[in-house]
């Protein structure tokens, strides 16, 4: 990837039907996906099933009211000490204006209802459940479509169904309160995602920046109706380094609060490159590992000392 690129590719998924892989523009879009993810590790996606109306309802009718609640209420979003990044995040060192809540299996209606009942006991949350589940379901459709295209593009499509059966999704909704300032400030520190794929939905305010392979930071600025798809370290490792997992951060400025909703696909299977992706030209780059073990390393004192945590954890 050269340093001349100043923006990410945009890929139009109009006409791509997730339930009918291979039909319509599938092959042409797959080629664009593979080029973007091997080069940038990230692309913008125009995905018509996520309508402007649903997108507006998600943020104005669900996400914003959620963050207006007292901190004590938001802290109910807790999944236990063995899942350190699965629930409420707030008051992090150096990130005082960042807050985030998450729903395990957000694309499924039952976990969304359980989350809403926890936050709003009494059941007056049907509207929240309908909107959040509807948006998360569409994020998940796009995520699975892209993941299937990746495996097809690498010639290992036979693993797709097994991966699907052992993959779950975390829906994370975030708020970045911003002071009135001309200077950019860090909304979230530079990092690589630990999971397979991330689907990012921004609301009105940009701020996501991605680092190119040559170290340049570029603002991810897709059209406001688009989504952003990004490779994480699990897919980087499983593809034996064929896909790029970019470092990214959130940098914000001005006096408008930024909101986002992100769907993370999380593998429960052993992350190990299949034999088809290992040869003389592509020797094994990472030792097999479990995602939860890697997350534990990332949040440990030792992991904090490394930028490329995957290399530090299991590089060959």
Automatic annotation (TrEMBL):
GO terms for molecular function: dioxygenase activity; metal ion binding. Residues 167-267 form the Fe2OG dioxygenase domain. Keywords: Dioxygenase, Iron, Metal-binding, Oxidoreductase. The keyword Metal-binding applies. Pfam families: 2OG-FeII_Oxy. 2-oxoglutarate-dependent dioxygenase essential for auxin catabolism and maintenance of auxin homeostasis in reproductive organs. Catalyzes the irreversible oxidation of indole-3-acetic acid (IAA) to the biologically inactive 2-oxoindole-3-acetic acid (OxIAA). Belongs to the iron/ascorbate-dependent oxidoreductase family. This is 2-oxoglutarate-dependent dioxygenase DAO. The lineage of its organism: Eukaryota, Viridiplantae, Streptophyta, Embryophyta, Tracheophyta.
């Amino acid at each position: 990837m050269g340093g001349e690129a100043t923006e990410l590719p945009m890929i139009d998924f109009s006409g791509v039907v997730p339930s009918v892989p291979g039909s319509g523009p599938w092959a042409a879009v797959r080629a664009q996906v593979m080029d973007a993810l091997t080069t940038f590790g990230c692309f913008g996606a125009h995905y018509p099933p996520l309508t402007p109306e649903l997108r507006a309802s998600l943020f104005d009718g669900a996400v914003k009211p959620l963050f207006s609640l007292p901190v004590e209420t938001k802290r109910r979003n807790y999944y236990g000490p063995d899942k350190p990044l699965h629930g409420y995040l707030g008051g992090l060192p150096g990130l005082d204006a960042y807050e985030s809540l998450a729903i395990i299996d957000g694309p499924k209606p039952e976990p969304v209802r359980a989350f809403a009942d926890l936050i709003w006991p009494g059941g007056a949350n049907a509207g929240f459940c309908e909107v959040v589940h509807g948006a998360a379901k569409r994020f998940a459709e796009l995520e699975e479509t892209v993941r299937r295209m990746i495996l097809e593009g690498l010639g290992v499509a036979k693993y797709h169904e097994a991966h699907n059966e052992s993959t779950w999704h975390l829906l994370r909704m975030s708020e970045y309160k911003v002071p009135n300032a001309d200077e950019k400030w860090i909304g979230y520190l530079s990092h690589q995602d630990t999971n397979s794929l991330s689907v990012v939905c921004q609301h009105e305010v940009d701020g996501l920046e991605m680092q190119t392979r040559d170290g340049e930071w570029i603002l991810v600025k897709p059209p406001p109706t688009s989504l952003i798809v990004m490779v994480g370290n699990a897919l980087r490792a499983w593809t034996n380094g064929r896909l790029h997992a970019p470092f990214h951060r959130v940098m914000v400025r001005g006096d408008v609060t930024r909101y986002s909703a992100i769907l993370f696909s999380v593998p429960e299977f052993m992350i190990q490159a299949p034999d088809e992706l290992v040869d003389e030209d592509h020797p094994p780059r990472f030792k097999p590992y479990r995602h939860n073990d890697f997350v534990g390393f990332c949040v440990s004192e030792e992991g904090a000392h490394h930028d490329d945590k995957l290399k530090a954890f299991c590089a060959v």
